[in-house]
Amino acid sequence: MTMADTQILAEKKPSGPIGRWLTMLWADKLAFFAALFLLIVLLCALFGPFLLEAIATKQNLRGRNAPPFDITRGMLYVLGADALGRPLLARVIVAAQNTILVAAAAVLASSVVGTGLGLVAGYSRSSAAQWIMRLGDVIMSFPSLLLAVIVLYMLEPSVTNIVLVLAITRIPIYLRTTRAEVLEVRERMFVQAAKVMGASYWRIVFHHILPVIFPTLVTIATLDFAFVMLAESSLSFLGIGIQAPEITWGLMVAQGRPYLTNAWWLSFWPGLAIILTTLSLNLLSNWLRIALDPTQRWRLEMRGRKNGRTSFGSA
Question: 121 with 179: CB under 8 angstroms?
């Protein structure tokens, strides 16, 4: 970093941590618009069912397979209607809740369990660490989507079973990553100093090691969220995911498959929502990888503050 860059960083200091993070986010325009789109999806998932669920499930056979961009029936029909005359815009918004809920629950469960097991496997030198790794190897030996298909064919396809299956198949990702990071961090000087000062096992793990590896886990979880969302959509498309009358984007794509030749919009709009959400998550994860790395973060800070006219939280 040159003296000029240091001077730029010192000229304008964001007011508080929120202003600093917004400045870094604005420095990467693709990540900024990706975060904005994900915020819209999150708002749709939170408030969409309360506002539009009745409209999304109301049938109107006179408007079945209505083409998009025709607002004579109302703005909610701007994306067209499905085979039962239900507005696709309302259904896409309402379906965001189930799609995001399943992905978020699976990622949260797998990350918590996988990280906990990885901390034990990485820091402990007992035989339990080896057993934990062998368990992860067994799970990874089965393709995750194939394992989910087999289990859901045997069990009743419900939200709980889908979350459970997807979470189990993703545990090894966090387990192996956490263990690899812990094996490197536990040899650093600050960990050795904590041992000398008499810090307990759990204090070293949770207060000294976990904060160091947490940024890596956040980046992986962001990418994994996109994978789990695609997996849930694939299961719904195959008919073993969430069942009607519940709505998910994958189920909407499956329901529109018989009409692809004469009503392409039935599958196109929910498919586009899946693509844009996955792309936004990947762009945001790339930004997080830099923003959470203290050795790389200054690049985003410098780039954001050089553009003074768009600096968030500047004096």
Answer: yes
Going by C-beta distance under 8 Å and a sequence separation of 6 or more, which residues neighbour residue 215? 288, 292, 293
The per-residue DSSP string of 55-74 comes to HHH---GGGTTPPTT--TT-
Q: 10 Å Cβ neighbour count for 26?
A: 18
Please compute, for residue 36, the number of CA atoms within 13 A of its CA located in the half-sphere on the CB side: 9
3-class SS shares of the chain: helix, strand, coil, % to 5:
75, 0, 25
Question: For the segment 29-82, what is each residue's pLDDT rounded down to a tens digit?
Answer: 898 999 999 999 999 999 988 988 888 888 888 888 888 888 788 888 899 888
- Residues in the chain, how many? 315
**3-class secondary-structure state, position 205:** helix
- Name the residue type at position 150: I
- Residue 232 corresponds to which amino acid? E
Tell which phi-psi region holds residue 271, choosing left (phi > 0), alpha (psi between -120 and 50) or beta: alpha
Tell me if the pTM is above 0.85.
Answer: no
**Mean pLDDT value of segment 242-248:** 82
CB of 246 closer than 8 Å to CB of 254: no
Q: Label each residue of 112-153 as H, E or C.
A: HHHHHHHHHHHHCCCHHHHHHHHHHHHHHCCCHHHHHHHHHH
